[in-house]
Automatic annotation (TrEMBL):
PROSITE patterns cross-referenced by the UniProt entry: RADICAL_SAM (PS51918), TATD_2 (PS01090), TATD_3 (PS01091)
Designated name of the protein: Radical SAM protein
Domain of life where this protein originates: Bacteria
Co-factor(s): [4Fe-4S] cluster
Length: 449
């Protein structure tokens, strides 16, 4: 797990002990953030002493009045240091106004220009100044960074994400009355989520009253996992990948053929599909819950079986991934048969075009091999389906309806799903499900896994 934002220089002689506790708590990397001119040299020394520590350099809005040509030159020079991964924390703080607002705005713009020119991401501090923060970011054409210790509302989070910024959640999410940030923490798409301590500040529950430190990151991770209905392991993987993507530290995972989310194992058998759904997550990211699903090559049955191990270790094993599984029908039959023989449960997530693909009814061939099937209906009529799913084959919507009818005969549990797009009549979709006698589920846009 990575603590994406703390202030190690504030721990003085305790740094080695703090980092030892972080390491023991399975924190692999810590990014220490400068704030004023005096702290910059200190954090560089820390990064040089401890391999697990990286840094960002910048002048906090509280100290914006310190920024001059000499300091700006120093930031530029240090930005070339191998352990410096960003410019920050910079931004605006209208709550305390330790530096005049106009001075803050000027310092913010100058440091954004520096970051843009040298190609480093920015770490943004914004308190009671969101509109001006976004305005200046747009003016400076900066779209690569993180909103540190995000304290805004859901609407503001969406605007920041639209601009390309990650949202970092601090220990505030553990506080009982932090309703707004809990709402934001539930909403943030996986590919924009980070976590931090902001140590020594903002100590999370149940450690309130103590000085915060990176080892306490686990409490924020647990709160996030509970809010988002995933495991701490999932939060660790998601946020670690995101920090590595933004700051370019560590290795990013290669395409995976089997990936675990919560207590379920998903099989990524192909990236090919017979639909080009405009809402599909695969068109804007390679990642689902921190797993890279962009395949270098399609796996064989032997590859999958070897990767799965003992199927009983999972609640179920799902043929899913970044494409339409039934494009590889023979592989599904072989691997599903093996899973069932080993005592596992099998589900298939499909667009329901299996019969169209193979020009025959395929479900009789899968009788006894599949315990459940989830079919993406995604629309209430053919016209809407064609508009949002862009099927390669004609009469796809009608084929999906027939596939659902067949599924009831051969699969014990059948569910159809739709994405809550504005063009889709959810009520009519539910009526279709009821008329066909199958379960119904609404999936939220950009919520995958």
């Amino acid at each position: 797990m990575i603590d994406s934002h703390c202030h190690l220089e504030m721990f003085e002689e305790e740094i080695s002990k703090v980092l030892k506790r972080a390491y023991d708590a399975e924190i692999s990397t810590v990014i220490t953030i400068s704030s004023d001119a005096a702290s910059i040299d200190e954090i560089i020394k820390i990064t040089e002493q401890y391999p697990m520590v990286y840094a960002t350099v910048g002048i906090h809005p509280h100290d914006a009045k310190e920024l001059n040509s000499e300091v700006l030159k120093k930031l530029f020079e240090l930005s070339r240091h191998p352990k410096v991964v960003g410019i920050g924390e910079i931004g605006l703080d209208y709550h305390y106004e330790h530096s005049p607002k106009e001075v803050q705005r000027e310092a913010f713009a100058l440091q954004l220009k520096l970051a843009r020119d040298i190609g480093l991401p920015v770490v943004i501090h914004s308190r009671e100044a969101f509109d001006d923060t976004i305005k200046i970011l747009k003016e400076q054409n900066v779209h690569k960074g993180v909103m540190h210790c995000f304290s805004g509302n859901l609407s503001q989070a969406k605007k920041a994400i639209e601009l390309g910024f990650f949202i970092s959640i601090s220990g505030v999410v553990t506080f009982k009355n932090a309703k707004t940030i809990k709402e934001v923490a539930r909403f943030v798409p996986d590919e924009y989520l980070m976590i931090e301590t902001d140590a020594p500040y903002l100590t999370p529950e149940p450690m309130r009253g103590k000085r915060n430190e990176p080892s306490f990151l686990i409490y924020t991770a647990k709160a996030l996992a509970d809010l988002r209905g995933v495991t701490i392991e999932d939060i660790d993987r998601i946020t670690t990948v995101n920090v590595n993507r933004l700051f370019r530290i560590g290795d990013l995972p290669k395409g995976e053929i089997a990936y675990k989310i919560r207590d379920t194992l998903y099989l990524n058998v192909t990236n090919r599909c017979t639909n080009v759904c405009r809402f599909c997550v695969r068109f804007h990211t390679d990642y689902v819950k921190g797993h890279n699903l962009r395949l270098e090559k399609e796996p064989s049955a032997e590859d999958l079986i070897q990767t799965i191990g003992d199927p009983k270790n999972y609640k179920e094993i799902v043929f899913c991934g970044y494409g339409e599984p039934f494009l590889r029908l023979d592989l599904i039959k072989e691997v599903a048969k093996w899973i069932k023989e080993q005592g596992g449960r099998v589900r298939v997530n499909t667009n329901g075009q299996g019969n169209l693909i193979h020009r025959r009814k395929i479900l009789p061939e899968l009788a006894g091999l599949i315990d459940s099937i989830s079919i993406s209906l995604n629309a209430h009529d053919s016209e809407t389906y064609n508009k949002i799913c862009n099927p390669v084959k004609p009469n796809a919507f009608e084929a999906v309806i027939e596939f659902i009818k067949d599924a009831k005969k051969y699969v014990p549990f059948v569910q159809i799903t739709v994405v809550n797009l504005k063009e889709v009549d959810i009520k009519k979709c539910e009526e279709i499900a009821n008329s066909l006698g199958v379960k119904f589920k609404v999936r939220h846009l950009d919520e995958v896994g």
